[in-house]
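Re: your question from the hallway

Yes, I did run it. Sequences:
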Amino acid sequence: MAQKNKLVFFLLCALALLVLPLVLQGFGNAWVRIVNIALLYTMLALGLNIVVGYAGLLDLGYVAFFAVGAYLYGLLASPQLTDNFPAIAAMFPHGLHLSIWLALPLGLLVAATAGVLLGIPVLKLRGDYLAIVTLGFGEIIRIFMNNLDHPVNITNGPKGVNQIDPVHFFGINLSKPLHLFGFDVASVSLYYYLFLVAVIITLIICKRLEDSRIGRAWMAIREDDVAAKAMGLNVRNLKLLAFGMGASFGGVSGALFASFQQFVSPESFSLMESVMIVAMVVLGGLGHLPGVVVGALLLSALPEVLRYVAGPLQQMTDGRLDAAILRQLFIALAMIIIMLLRPRGLWPSPEHGKAKIDPADKVMPLTAQQDPPGIDFPSDATPGAVAVRQDAINP
Amino acid sequence: MDILLQQIINGLVLGSMYALIALGYTMVYGIIQLINFAHGEVLMVGALTAWSVIGWLQGVAPGMPAWVMLLLATLAGCVVASIVNVLIEKFAYRPLRNAPRLAPLITALGMSILLQALAMMIWKPNVKSFPSMLPTDPFFIGEAVITPTQIMILVVTVMALAVLTWIVNYTNIGRAMRATAENPRVASLMGVKPDSVISATFVIGAVLAAIAGVMYASNYGTAQHFMGFLPGLKAFTAAVFGGIGNLAGAVVGGVLLGLIEAIGSGYLGTLTGGFLGSDYTDIFAFIVLIIVLTLRPSGLLGERVADRA
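Structure:
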C-alpha cells in the first residue's frame, strides 16, 4: 500500500514538473526563465555539494568552472573566434558551430581538468587557507576572461561573447517555439525540459556517488582525513577526484547557461556567485541532496520572484527601497534567519552531518560513569558495597 | 629607479591599510576561529559615517580646521563601526558558537549583504566624493611623490599598531584576549569572561577597520556602499598570507601584499613585454599567495594547526 502511494506521489510530481512551464508560460516567459536559472543553480549547487558536502573541502571559487564551461561553449559556437582569427575562419568556412553533443562532454572534461589542476596545489591546505586559494583561483579565471581582449582578442573582454548558438538536436532548435499538437511550447519551456533532464541526471549521479565506495570514502575524509588515510584510503587521489567531479558539473551547467543566454560576460562569474552557491549548499543542508535542491531553489528563485512583487513596496517608500535592494535584503535576511534557526541547514542529512561533539565534553568524571573502564581489583571494593561489575576479569 | 621608489611608497601606503583591516580579521579569527566576512562592510560603515559627519560639520561649523573635522569624523566612524560590529557578533555569531563551522560563515555573508543593502537605503547607491581634508601639495623624495594624505596614512598606521601592541601585551583586556585565544575553556575558569573579551575584540577590529576606511576613502577620494568589498577581500588574503590568527603575520602579510601589488602593477607590463598589463595585478598577487601557501601551508608566520573545514 505504502509502495503504491509512493508511486502515485512520484507520478504526480513528475506530471507537475512536466506541466509547470506550460502553465507558467501563460503568465509570461519571464517566469519560466526564473525557473530555468533556478534549475541551473540547482545543478551548480549539486556539483559544489560533492566538494563541500561530501569531501568537506570549502571551495569559494566554484563559479570558475561554470565560467570555463560557459566560455568554452561560447567560443566554440559563436562567431567570436572566426571574426578575430583569420586562420580559424579559413579552417571553418561555415563558422564555428559546435554541436551540443560535443560541447557537453568537452565542457565536462575541460572543467574537470581545471578542477584537478586547482586541486593539486591546494591538497595540503586546510579550512580557511583552502577557502582563500580557491577564491583566488575563481578571481584569476574571472580576471583572465575580463582582460583577454588584448593584445589578442580571445574573450572579447568585459563586453562578453555574443551570438552564441542555441541548442539544436534531433532537428529541434530550442531557441524557437515548437508547435506540438496545435499547442505552442515556448523556447524557454523547451530549455526548461533540457535543464530538468540535466538536473535529474545530476541527482541520480550524486545519489549513486553518495552510496558508493567513493562517496563513503569522501565522507570519511571529511570527518577525519588522518584516520581515513590510516584506513588505507588514497586521500590525495580522492580529494582530486572530488574537485574534478564537482567541477565537471559546473562545466556542463556553464555550457547549458551559455546556450540558453546566447551571451556570456565575465559579470556572470563574480565572487558573489561562488558565495551564493556555497550559501545554497549550506542553507539547504550540507551533504544532503534534497536539502541542497531546496536551498538552491529557494535562494535563486525567490529573490527573483520578489523582484516582480516589489513594485508596491517601492512606491510606499518613495523609491528608496527599489527592487535590487529589496532582493538583497531578502537574501541577506533569509541567510541569517535560516542559519540562526537551523544551523545545520533547512533539511540536513539525518545520519552523516551529525554535529561534532567536542571530545572534551565526552569525558565524564569516573564517579559519574556507570561502568568505569579498566580492571577492578579487589582492593578497590569498599566494604559493604555491591560489586558493580560482575563480569569483570578480576571480580 | 624612481619608479621603484614611487611604487614602494604606494605599496607601503596600500599595504598599511591592508594591514589595519587584516588585523581585524586575524584577531577575530584568533579568538573564535571565524572569518568575519562582514568586516569589509564595517569599514564601509565607518567611512560613510565619517563622510556624513564631515558634510554635517562643514554645514554647521565652516570655520573649523579641516584636520579637526577629519579627526572628529573618524572618531564618529569608529564609534558607529564598533556598535555595528558588536551587534553583528551578538546577533549573527554568538548564537552559532557551537554550530557546525560553516553556519556562522553563512550568517557572516548574510550580514555583509544586509549591511550593503542598508547602506544603499541610508546613503543612496551613488558614488560620493570624499572631501580631501588635508593639503594636497605633494612632497618630493627624489622624483617620487608622496601626498600629505599618504604620509598621514603611514603615520596613523604606525600609531595604531603601537597602541594595539600595547593593548594586547600590557593591559588586562589584552591578557584576557591572549588567554581566550589560547584556550577559551581554561581562560573562563581563570575568571575571564569570554563574551566580553569577544565583544572587545570586535570593537578593536571595528576601530581599526573604520580608521582604514576613512584613510581608504581619503586616499581615493570616493566612498560608496560596496567600497568595503575589495579592501576586505585583499585584507583577508593578507591575513591568510601572513598566517591567520597571528597579529604580526597580519601586518607582514598586509604590507607585503601592498608592495607586491604596487610593484606588480608598475613592472608587470614591462616584464612581460606589454603582454600582461596592470589589469593582471590581482592575478599576480593571488599567484604569489598560492605559491607561498603551497610552500608554507599555514602562511608566512602561522603555526601548524590541525583543523579542518
